[in-house]
Design a protein that fits this description.
Elements (H helix, E strand, L loop, with lengths): L9 H16 L2 H7 L10 H13 L4 H6 L9 H9 L5 H17 L10 E10 L10 E5 L4 E14 L3 E10 L19 H9 L3 H14 L6 E4 L6 H9 L3 E5 L8 E3 L2 E3 L1 H7 L9 E11 L5 E10 L7 E6 L6 H8 L3 H12 L27 E2 L8
Parallel strand pairs: 1-5, 5-6
Antiparallel strand pairs: 1-3, 2-3, 3-4, 4-12, 6-11, 7-8, 9-10, 10-11
Length: 389
């Protein structure tokens, strides 16, 4: 497969060699077959995917490469188009199968059993600002610019041990509100994987979150906590995560409609902070209390610990973290939540280095401009995470 790329530089040859070894050692062909990847003739799905991965890590642009006069590619454009646009391929299953295998066989055996492994979920803007006719294109809210833009929300579930981050599953979300969808869904066989992903794209993000988590757990990925920021931090969601047998650590936002049970009262986050006794001096952790967050399906009261932390950017302000593991020390709540930062670094790497949403463009939801353009994820190695921010 390395011969598919012209031998121009040592760096390109190394990229091709690394990709070939990776595909061989991890048995990528077998993983693809288990994920419904098959072709009746021509180059195999494994060969095409390995070619695309090699191009990414050698810094080459796919379409310019296929258009080049050198004729270096052993196949035509249509072979790549058909591979990237096929609605029957189950990219999510492939990514879950591959990432879980790497975690269980390559990473976990090298780390201490006491190390805390976590799931992390977050979304990032998948901008298509110049598009007009992309399937399921929607007006989505950009949390950075605080305005609506054209595109999708890229909801990603990942895994981290504090040093290594791997993506597990993803969903490119349109909008659950039909009024915010600029384009509809093309007719498609309801039995296909592509149809299921399109239906998922117009569901509530919190419902999709729970489904991604359920699928990841089915692959026996070892993790004790799910980390996320305040955009998903609602008691109803946290309770459903607890019912899946997983603890949550998340950032909280004070909302007038969200209340917590404390000493027989239902209080907002701001009123909770006013009611608790704070530590004196310049303590980083100002206070912590155990509150109720409603009832589980079995009728049991769901409890959680809220830790109030001094905001290092404005010392007179505070941040609040919630942990459903009420036995976890306050310092551990803060330390473990710091691992969430690795998914932010992952998004940055995907957009800057892999040119997410820029390298490929298409109108179909299955095309490179649709769900699967971020299918090739690097394994990201980072530190133990930054402090709460």
């Amino acid at each position: 497969m390395a011969s598919m790329l012209p031998e121009k530089t040592t760096a390109e040859n190394k990229s091709a060699s690394y990709a070939a070894n990776f595909f061989k050692e991890l048995r990528i062909g077998q993983a693809l077959r288990k994920s419904n990847f098959s072709k009746q003739g021509g180059f195999s799905c494994k060969d095409l995917l390995q070619f695309l991965v090699t191009l990414v890590f050698s810094g080459k642009n796919l379409w310019r490469y296929l258009d080049s006069d050198a004729g270096a590619a052993p196949f035509q454009k249509d072979a790549v188009y058909r591979f990237l646009n096929d609605c029957h391929y189950n990219w999510r299953k492939f990514l879950l199968f591959l990432s879980s295998k790497i975690i269980r066989t390559r990473i976990v055996p090298l780390t201490d059993e006491k190390r805390v492994n976590v799931f992390i979920i977050d979304d990032s803007l998948y901008s298509r600002s110049r598009s007009k006719a992309v399937e399921l294109l929607a007006r989505v809210f950009d949390h950075v610019s605080n305005r609506y833009v054209r595109g999708f929300r890229m909801l990603t579930l990942g895994w981290s041990d504090g040093n290594t981050f791997l993506p597990l599953a993803f969903s490119l979300l349109s909008s659950e509100k039909e009024a915010n969808r600029l384009c509809g869904m093309d007719p498609l066989d309801k039995r296909t994987n592509g149809y299921q992903r399109r239906q998922e794209a117009i569901r509530k993000s919190t419902d999709v979150l729970l489904e991604l988590l359920k699928q990841a757990k089915a692959y026996l990925v070892p993790a004790g906590y799910l980390l996320f920021d305040s955009w998903f931090a609602f008691p109803g969601v946290i309770r459903k995560i607890r019912e899946q047998g997983l603890h949550t650590i998340c950032m909280l936002k004070s909302l007038p409609t969200v209340k917590y049970e404390y000493q027989g009262q239902k209080l907002t986050l701001n009123k909770l902070y006013a009611a608790v006794r704070k530590k004196r001096g310049r303590a980083r952790i100002l206070a912590s209390i155990v509150v109720g967050i409603g009832q589980l399906e079995n009728g049991e009261q769901a409890m959680a610990r809220i830790v109030f932390v001094r905001d290092r950017r404005a010392r007179k302000k505070w941040l609040a973290l919630l942990s459903t593991d009420t036995e976890l020390p306050d310092e551990e709540v803060v330390r473990i939540y710091g691992k969430r930062w690795s998914i932010e670094v992952f998004f940055k790497m995907s957009k800057s280095y892999l040119r997410l949403a820029k390298e490929f463009q298409g109108r179909s939801y299955d095309s490179p401009g649709g769900e699967h353009s971020h299918r090739v994820h690097p394994i990201h190695h980072a530190g133990s995470g930054e402090p709460v921010r």
